[in-house]
Amino acid sequence: MTKVIAMAGKGGTGKTTTSALLTRYLLAKKATPFLLVDADSNANLNELLGLDVGLTLGKIRQELKGELPPNITRDQFMEMKIHQALIEETGFDLLVMGQPDGPGCYCAANQYLAMTMDKLAANYKYIIVDNEAGMEHLSRMNLRSIDYLLVTSDPSARGILTAKRISEITAPLGLQIKKQFLLVNRAPQPVPPALQEKIDEAVNDSGMELGGIIPSSEALINQELSGESYLKLDDSADVIPTITAIFDNIFADQD
Ligand SMILES: Nc1ncnc2c1ncn2[C@@H]1O[C@H](COP(=O)(O)OP(=O)(O)OP(=O)(O)O)[C@@H](O)[C@H]1O
Ligand SMILES: [Mg+2]
Question: Which end of the chain is more exposed for a tag (fewer CB within 10 A), N or C?
Fold first, then answer.
């Protein structure tokens, strides 16, 4: 069965960074094939992976509103277009959602999209969804169930509280989530006791387990500044042993 891993968290806390590091991790573990979905309307996961984006699902939705070529059903058209939009790499594919529907959503198009996505999903071991901040987006994506929700937070009291709130609103949004993990990112080392206390409180009072604490990383800052793919990060790069241990722990129930 395909496992869905989705990112959540306040803006700028590390959702896309975590998605790129998870891509690197799954490739290293040969846990392939997997599908990356960039569900941020301001797509930028591709940049961290050194990939160019062409066709997005938003553009396909637009095309579906217009005249279709003759002798082709909407289903066939959708399937063909989605295959065009897939950026195929060794071990994984990337699909970019692009701009969401404006007012007057064309619901039939979304339905075709959802159906085609369902069919597509079966081809992968994992689907990883990088989101923009805010949970409404996740509930709109038509993911019926999420196996792992990774909630990123900055290393502040208010940040941790926001992560806890995000975790709490998943149920009212109707999202079925099997496991939730808190990732505290860019934490000072050693972790100040007061921050550790906030983290422990949040984990005790919510459905989240502690996924891990990620230090601020010079390697990530340099990689981002140089525009080099995160897939090229060396095993010895400062953040890699920590993030590997974190993912090993989160996905320990996997084969
Ligand atoms: N552990 C870290 N060490 C150093 N820099 C980091 C770390 N994690 C993230 N960053 C940097 O912080 C910035 C924000 O990270 P990122 O884009 O992953 O956040 P995001 O949650 O995806 O943001 P958005 O909500 O805008 O999509 C980026 O410039 C990234 O390189
Ligand atoms: Mg992002």
Answer: C
Asked if residue 80 is part of any domain, the answer here is yes
Ligand 2 centroid–CA 154 distance in Å is 14
Sign of the C-alpha dihedral computed for residues 247, 203, 4 and 12 taken in this order: negative
Nearest CA to ligand 1 atom 15: 14
For residue 56, name the pLDDT band (cuts at 50, 70, 90): very high
In a domain, 187, yes or no: yes
Ligand nearest to the CA of 15: 1
In a domain, 255, yes or no: no
Going from the Cα of 140 to the center of ligand 1, the distance in angstroms, rounded, reads 24
Question: Which of ligand 1's atoms lies nearest the C-alpha of 19?
Answer: 18
Please indicate whether residue 246, judged by its CB atom, sits closer than 6 Å to ligand 1.
no
Kindly give the distance from the C-alpha atom of residue 16 to the centroid of ligand 2, in angstroms, as a whole number: 4
Closest-approaching ligand to the CA atom of 10: 1
- Coil vs helix vs strand at 190: coil
Residue 1 above 90 pLDDT?
no
Q: What is the rounded distance in angstroms from the CA atom of residue 12 to the CA atom of residue 45?
A: 13
Cα angle, residue 90 at apex, residues 144 and 49 outer, rounded to 5° = 75
> Sign (positive/negative) of CA torsion 20, 125, 147, 56?
positive
Counting ligand 1 atoms within 8 A of each CB, the residue from 17, 130, 220 with the most, and so the one to mutate, is: 17
Indicate the number of domains in the chain: 1
We report the CATH number of the domain holding residue 194 as: 3.40.50.300
Helix (H) or strand (E) holding 69: none
CB 217 within 8 A of CB 187: no
pTM above 0.70, yes or no: yes
Q: Which domain holds residue 94?
A: 4-250
